[in-house]
Amino acid sequence: MSSASPNTLFGMGNPLLDISAVVDKDFLDKYTLKPNDQILAEDKHKELFEEIVKKSKVEYHAGGATQNSIKIAQWMVQEPHKVGTFFGCIGKDDKFGGILKQKAEEAHIDAHYYEQEEKPTGTCAACITGDNRSLVANLSAAECYKKDKHLDLEENWELVEKAKVYYIAGFFLTVSLESILKVAKHASDNNKLFCLNLSAPFICQFFKDNLMQVMPYVDVLFGNETEAAAFAKELDFETKDIKEIAKKAQALTKVNKKRERIVVLTQGKDKTAMASEKVETFPVLKIDPKDIVDTNGAGDAFVGGFLSGLVQEKPLDQCVKAAHYAANVIIRRAGCTFPEKPDFK
């Protein structure tokens, strides 16, 4: 049994059903997609969702960045079940929502969805070409999350209070800033760990104000090299050096002075940079390129591994090790899926 107890890890975000398929360059060009990107669906992408489900090898996986990370953390911890709690919004009584609920249960996470009838459960098309993946998210119901209708309810807020580590992907900044701030302030006031992910360049570019309202409460900030570069540019850091960016992000204003901010920036197959007491780099686990099946869940898995260490109060270098292990397992498989048990010591 791990040292973590039920509901010690709390996540809140956009629960999406991932629809992944291998596509060709013409498909990307038709919908003006970059091979390796994450965007929100616009009207011009409406037909993309209809077209991708007709592809020969289409796969459905329970997704949404935060939910993926909570599931991976739970998988790494194994026992007890329901260490991870997850909040998000889905459609009431619809097929995709039903699949998400079932998958959450199978992953042993304690998912409490706000179910509404206005919009159907959100989806994310993962358009795979080679080892690249272009994600197009149709948030739909995920956008309908309401603080007063769900987070503020006594039985739900009690689950928030039970947690010691909080994780929210930057994607949720486009949905409910007030929900994020309520959780972030609770963590800060009670000297608990609040973790946030930069998630995608567009978050820094178009939701910078929301991001910077939450930043003073962030104890652990995650991002990859592209997101870090966009963040540095938006904040006029005047550097492209990953270690410098980590250092400058760490130095941004912080409310809870009892904890120094930790910044963890990944760079695909290159070393991960982490700013804590000092800035260090950690090599990732080597993998033969032909063993890479799908890099889609790598970032979420990295965070999930890291969170599994935090929730068990392990030293930071052990958290990075767990993160690298989880990412290495996930990229060998389609979607954010994993074997029955981790082989991590």
From TrEMBL:
Please give the catalytic activity noted in the UniProt record. Answer: adenosine + ATP = AMP + ADP + H(+)
Q: Which domain of life is it from?
A: Eukaryota
Q: Which co-factor is required?
A: Mg(2+)
**Record pathway:** Purine metabolism; AMP biosynthesis via salvage pathway; AMP from adenosine: step 1/1
Subcellular location per the Swiss-Prot or TrEMBL entry: Nucleus
An example molecular function term from Gene Ontology annotations: ATP binding
Keywords annotated in UniProt: ATP-binding, Kinase, Magnesium, Nucleotide-binding, Nucleus, Purine salvage, Transferase
**InterPro entries given in the database record:** Adenokinase (IPR001805), Carboh/pur_kinase_PfkB_CS (IPR002173), PfkB_dom (IPR011611), Ribokinase-like (IPR029056)
Gene3D superfamilies membership: 3.30.1110.10, 3.40.1190.20
Q: Where is the active site?
A: D300
**The UniProt record lists the keyword Nucleotide-binding:** yes
Q: Which PANTHER family match?
A: ADENOSINE KINASE
UniProt subunit comment? Monomer.
Which protein are we looking at? Adenosine kinase
Source lineage:
Eukaryota, Metazoa, Chordata, Craniata, Vertebrata
Q: Which gene encodes it?
A: adka
